[in-house]
Here is the input.
Amino acid sequence: MKRILVRLKERSYPILIGRNLVASVGSFLKPLKLGPKILIVTNEAVSNLFLASVLSSLKRAGFELAAPYLLEHGDERDKSEKTLLRLWEHMARAKLERTSTLLALGGGVVGDVAGFAASTYMRGISLVLVPTTLLAQVDASIGGKTGIDLPSAKNLVGTFYQPRMVISDVGTLQKIPTRELRNGFAEIIKYGMIRDAALFRLLEREKNWFEPDFLETVIARSAAVKAEIIERDERETKGERIILNYGHTFAHAFEAASQYRLPHGEAVALGMVSAARLARKKKLLRASDEERQNRLIEKAGLPTERARYRLGHHGILQHMMLDKKKREGKPRFVLPSAVGCVKVVENVSLAELKEIL
Ligand SMILES: NC(=O)c1ccc[n+]([C@@H]2O[C@H](COP(=O)([O-])OP(=O)(O)OC[C@H]3O[C@@H](n4cnc5c(N)ncnc54)[C@H](O)[C@@H]3O)[C@@H](O)[C@H]2O)c1
Ligand SMILES: [Zn+2]
Here is the structure.
């Protein structure tokens, strides 16, 4: 098992990464000296796979278990104000107190909603995350962002709220569809590009990315990269966290232009391809490094060519301009200068963007 500490003074917390952790959740939580009562938030699909095991482990560790709460849809629709209201009411009926704990068992959707509920119920109760998708293990469960969607935009309402512990069981990934795993790998490649050239080389060398030991290694390295950035800019006020957005300015525009049919990881892959192309145009990046990135994206089974998605250029540019307006006319692009290294660049013209796209 690997253990990464996110150092945020009194809000510090460990991320545990390994196999068969779900069956021992109770013993990992014991040293945290949480209050006696725990309520699990999950959804039906995830509960069928892991709920019994988590419940019995918590029981063995002496916790008092409230009735679990199952989110209704099992997808992005659960990140709504309706879900939140029902969840808060469930928590009240279960008589959760200030000392109680909410445990999120599932993907990023479960973590985001449960995190928001935990951060607001009685002005904040303890939160434990047990992420069960690759994306949630390398990204969503680290950094303290919680939130729900509004009809006008995703993740528009939320809080910064750090969990007490994150428990990432690599074994839970066995039944995840390959396409979902690939989407998680888009973020892992991102971490390699922005900060960790050794992680990038590991991905280049390894043949079987889905092998559990390898997964454990790359999840831990990814978590460490994100944790280190969060430590320096917990609330996105110091301009450090922006590098986590590598490929994402383009990706968000591609997702919007596809009416959100394009999966996030595929959009990020295409976004990194565009960002690297822009970096090359600006003579920041060598051709050989751009090729290395794109080869790795292809190796992950992720797209490097946008053509087959038929996303209109007009819609993409419009979205990027809208994004620019939101940030007072100063679009900032995170561009690679080498594998493992990025720069924040502001002088990108509309003409350059058009050329890239
Ligand atoms: N808070 C953050 O910093 C942050 C960062 C990135 C993404 N996110 C959010 O995360 C969400 C996406 O998360 P996601 O990709 O984990 O998707 P998800 O939570 O929707 O899960 C995807 C599907 O996989 C199922 N599932 C979960 N675990 C499984 C398992 N072990 N085996 C089989 N099926 C399983 C779920 O029931 C669901 O149907 C988005 O809402 C996004 O906004 C948040
Ligand atoms: Zn992302």
About this structure: Residues 237 and 339 are 26 Å apart (CA to CA). The first strand starts at residue 2 and ends at 6. The two ends are 43 Å apart (CA to CA). The chain has a mean pLDDT of 95.
